[in-house]
Each structure stands twice: as C-alpha cells, then as structure tokens.
Design a protein that fits this description.
Layout lengths: L1 H7 L12 H15 L4 H6 L14 H18 L25 H9 L1
Main location: cytoplasm
Protein name: Centrosomal protein of 19 kDa
Organism: Seriola lalandi dorsalis
Length: about 110
C-alpha cells in the first residue's frame, strides 16, 4: 500500500513513472527491514522462493509477497503462441526420482 501511495503521489509521480510497482514494494520492504535492524542479506533472502518452505506457516503479507515472486517467475518463463521459440506440443521427459515406500503403504496393499 505504501509503494502504491508513493507512486501515485503527485510530488513523486514523474520520477517513479518508469519504476514498476514490484520494485517499489521490494525497496519499501528493504527500507522497513533496515529500520527494524535487519541486514540487507536478511531482506534479500526473504525474496528468495524456497521450494521446500511451508507456505502455510507464513503471515498474509509474506504469503502475498511469495505468491507475487512465483507469478513473476511464471510470467518470465511463460511461452505464448506468438513467441519465436514456442512449441505447440512440447514433450519433456522428467526423470522419476526413486520414492521411498512408507510402512503404511505396504500395509494398505495387503488389505485390498
């Protein structure tokens, strides 16, 4: 909200016209963290999306930030029909990792 107000402020509008909303939000988060005594490394680490992180444990603000980052990565990697390297029926072979069997999996096979 603060980044949006800053961008829409008549005093700053001309200077921030070329700056994206997400960049302003990141800058605001870094400045807020700095004022709370956190290091720059800590602030930048919060922008990293960890695939093993449990997103259910995050507060609403942090979750919205992580979802925004995932949307950015998705849009960056997305291929549209008009792109020169677009392939309609792309087939990719993902190697299947060996999955460990759980004890409850073995037991349920016997019952059925």
């Amino acid at each position: 909200m603060a980044a949006e107000r800053l961008k829409n402020n008549p005093r700053h509008r001309d200077y921030l016209e070329g700056v994206s909303q997400s960049q302003l939000e990141k800058l605001h988060i870094i400045l807020r963290d700095h004022m709370q005594g956190f290091s720059l490394e800590h602030s930048l680490a919060s922008f990293h999306v960890d695939p093993d992180e449990d997103l259910n444990k995050l507060d609403d603000e942090e979750l919205a930030r992580k979802k925004g980052q995932m949307d950015e990565v998705f849009e960056k990697n997305r291929r549209l029909k008009d792109d020169p390297d677009f392939v309609y029926d792309l087939e990719v072979d993902f190697s299947k990792p060996t999955q460990e069997k759980c004890s409850w999996d073995d037991e349920s096979d016997d019952e059925f």
